[in-house]
Amino acid sequence: MIGKKHWPFKTGLLVAGLTLWFGMAVSAAPAIEGDTDLTVKADQVVVAQFTVTNEDPMESVSLMVSYDKDAMTYMSGNGGDNFDVTGGNGSVQMTSSPDDTEAVFTVRFRGSEDTETTLEIVSCTATMDGTEVDVLTGDAVSEEEAEEGDEAAAEEEDESEERASFVIDDRTFYVRRPGDLEGFDVIHMDIQGIDSRVLKHNTLDLYVVYLISDNGSFRDYFVYNPDTGNVIPYVNMESGTDSVIFIEKDEDVEPPTRYTYVDLGWGQKYTIPAYKHVTIDGVDEILDDTNRYLVYGINQDGEKAWYSFDYDKNSLQLFDTIAYDGEQIYITELEEKDTGMRSEMAYQLERYNTDMGTRLFVILILILIIIALANVVVFQHLRMRKMQMPPEEDPDAEDEDGEKESGEYIVGNLEENETDFSDPEDRGQDEELEIIDLDDPDEDDR
């Protein structure tokens, strides 16, 4: 009887204790609140914020949300201490180590059109005292998953040298056991001389590896190219009715004319090989200022082709290589014609300069010759002026004795065999010559 009297009391204490314990357990479970319904306007930024809270400090928090890539384009995110984010292609993965009772994540998008859209919280986990809890359900991660995680961490720490690795953005990634990916099967492949588990497409010659960074912060799928040993982020997008996976171009495939290689940023962690249109200005290449890129991809039928990717609209369209090549041929012909005209003009200009140089040289020679001849003429003229001419004789001039100079002539009327003159030696020195004036009538009478 005594035991029965105390039974209700003990039962009450047990119920109270269980209630208190479950109440503490429930109150200790983390919770998340955030903006899931968004109003989007074209070309404007829209911000979504999510807050994860818990009574005890959280060692790490991980949040993944999905968005409508046709309505918005991912821009950036932030979330406090040791924050990391990967965004694009319709999802955003964020992690942080707040070591606090609250973790706040902010995501920025750019609207593609005026519409109402919804963000979906795909997963959210928080770690407290080494225990990882699913924030959406409040349940702890199963022991099996925890053991696999611990085993993987131990293997990464102890056996990292035995795993194939890749260096991406100065960070080392290791090949790990992949999960399930639609359309792929798990196979074993030799990567860097190490037997590794990879995913192979069911119908395509395409391989995907699951990589984890050396600190465990980054975990993503990458397309692996066995021919080159390179990896690029796994991206699967829709282009019309085709499902296209980005791949590394084959070595024998050349990009279209006037396209140059660039690294297309994918989120804030990775880059994708892409090409951008350029304009040739002399010898300089001017990149197109739009956010359009050319990427290489393979569709579900195994057809490889170039695709035009609009980063702002997050859309993919098959690139019309034939039409583009025809346009470039026409442009090339115009450029060649313009180049030919420029060459002809340059030739004519050079020829003109050469001819003008020759003409100037000839003119200079002629000027020198003219100057030389002018000097000769002036010299001869001066020389002639220095020469003295004999004085002119005056017919009326007399010598010192009053007689005419011997250079004068005396005119007379002489008959044949007669002369009015005699030899001065015979007539005497003092005899004067008689001058007969034939025009004087008196002389005739004499």
Secondary-structure map with pairings?
Elements: H1 2-28, E1 31-34, E2 37-40, E3 45-58, E4 60-66, E5 72-78, E6 84-88, E7 91-96, E8 100-111, E9 115-118, E10 120-128, E11 131-134, H2 143-158, E12 165-168, E13 171-176, E14 184-191, E15 194-201, E16 207-213, E17 219-225, E18 230-233, E19 236-239, E20 242-246, E21 259-266, E22 270-281, E23 284-287, E24 292-298, E25 304-310, E26 315-318, H3 321-386, H4 424-427, H5 441-445
Antiparallel strand pairs: 1-3, 2-9, 3-8, 4-7, 4-10, 5-8, 6-7, 10-11, 12-13, 13-16, 14-15, 15-16, 16-17, 17-18, 19-20, 20-24, 21-22, 22-23, 24-25, 25-26
Walk me through this protein's architecture.
With 446 residues, the chain is of the alpha+beta class. Among the domains are: 31-135, Sandwich (Immunoglobulin-like); 142-234, no CATH class. Helices cover 26% and strands 38% of the residues. It has 5 helices and 26 strands. The protein has helices spanning 2-28, 143-158, 321-386, 424-427, 441-445, and strands at residues 31-34, 37-40, 45-58, 60-66, 72-78, 84-88, 91-96, 100-111, 115-118, 120-128, 131-134, 165-168, 171-176, 184-191, 194-201, 207-213, 219-225, 230-233, 236-239, 242-246, 259-266, 270-281, 284-287, 292-298, 304-310, 315-318. The strands form 6 sheets. Strands 12, 13, 14, 15, 16, 17 and 18 form a 7-stranded antiparallel sheet that branches. The protein has a 5-stranded antiparallel sheet with strand order 6-7-4-10-11, with no helix packed on it. A 5-stranded antiparallel sheet has the order 19-20-24-25-26, with no helix packed on it. Strand 17 and strand 18 form a beta hairpin. It is elongated, with a radius of gyration of 58 Å. The protein starts with a helix and ends with a helix. The model is unreliable at 1-27 and 150-161 (pLDDT under 50).
